[in-house]
């Protein structure tokens, strides 16, 4: 008598094998696949929020350094420390992305957080040691930039390993709120510590990111295979074939060997550059991130130098107020991700946001001084349009391109592609604050003209991709309309939705 086949087993419900899991996860009860994904989102969110929190102190203490700590009386020298961090960060990004696709992402990220936290605290040590050497502070920022470059390629690659599909833009848009949450938390912590001496504004955030690195080391599973699950799409699928309790994802787990890692070969930088769209989005991010990081590093200083409602505010108050730019950024990142999912048009969404950023910047500069309420409203709108495309490109776009169909599924490129795009963007991020240190001598009008021009160039660079996406949108709508007229609404055509990866 023929033995009946075993019942189909959900590809994500088999009991995970935890031999390759981090030590902290081994001590926990067995978790479901979705619970693991939630934990991954939470830990990577916390990790990169702490990265950004540790980058906020320089902007908060600028006024204090300019007033009382030689050699920083010249704003251009404050810009020099910014450019030292961001240049080393962008250079380190290319190396970090190359390593991220080859090393254990959990250990790589955790070690970068612990060492990066120590480097942030090193800058603050200058206060306690009464050091007034520009070379010391520049060197501290170079070290911090190199170590912090481990963060972004790692967290995007980890999230990309666990999430894909038509809701990737929205999920990563919400997840990318860590950037603004980190900026907000960093501003609040640094401003609160400023009263005890500006050195504490660096030491405390540095210690927090090091503690976050310990959590990552003990509890973050960078690959589904680490906890016994094979790669799976964002929408679970039911395996049609199963033998003795093993499913189609079992081979994927086995392929991971005993390391819990994806066994596919990592691509080189040249192959990653050849992926369609990588170079264009990288150049676009150069200018988009220039605008975003100029606000990150100079907004509190600008607010403290500009009378709002006829009054000047303290450095600490300006730091607290500046967080509202990032609140707008959170909304912008989520909105950009959602719209791009619905339109299946990442470039078009990013370009529209960049074009709208131009008038928002001029309105904020021209009318933000009328009252605090007006300043808050215009600052949040500016944050929405400035940070929206920046968030979209560094998350969903990078993840899409890192798993592009041209790779044919046989290569890992998430960290490398992320590093190329964000590394190029970070060069712009280094240039913006540096130029602002000099241009602000002529007045803030010139700074905002520079920012508007950069936003315009960022949008124009996407023109070729925008034309292609618009043609595809029109074609999908026509196909959808034809299907509706023919009574074939369930033909499988899904206009305005990103196809499953």
What is the topological layout?
Layout: H1 23-26, H2 33-53, H3 57-68, H4 75-100, H5 105-128, H6 134-148, H7 151-162, H8 168-175, H9 177-194, H10 200-219, H11 250-255, E1 265-266, H12 269-273, H13 278-305, H14 315-343, H15 346-367, H16 372-402, E2 411-412, H17 414-439, H18 444-461, H19 463-485
Parallel strand pairs: 1-2
Domain Major facilitator superfamily (MFS) profile: 35-470
InterPro entries: MFS, MFS_dom, MFS_trans_sf, Sugar_P_transporter
Keywords: Membrane, Sugar transport, Transmembrane, Transmembrane helix, Transport
Q: What does this entry look like structurally?
A:
The model is unreliable at 1-16, 231-263 and 490-501 (pLDDT under 50). With 501 residues, the protein is an all-alpha fold. The chain is built from 19 helices and two strands. Helix 4 packs antiparallel against helix 17 and helix 9 runs antiparallel to helix 14 (315-343). The chain has helices at 23-26, 33-53, 57-68, 75-100, 105-128, 134-148, 151-162, 168-175, 177-194, 200-219, 250-255, 269-273, 278-305, 315-343, 346-367, 372-402, 414-439, 444-461, 463-485, and strands at 265-266, 411-412. It is globular and about 70 Å long. A two-stranded parallel ribbon has the order 1-2. 69% of the residues lie in helices and 1% in strands.
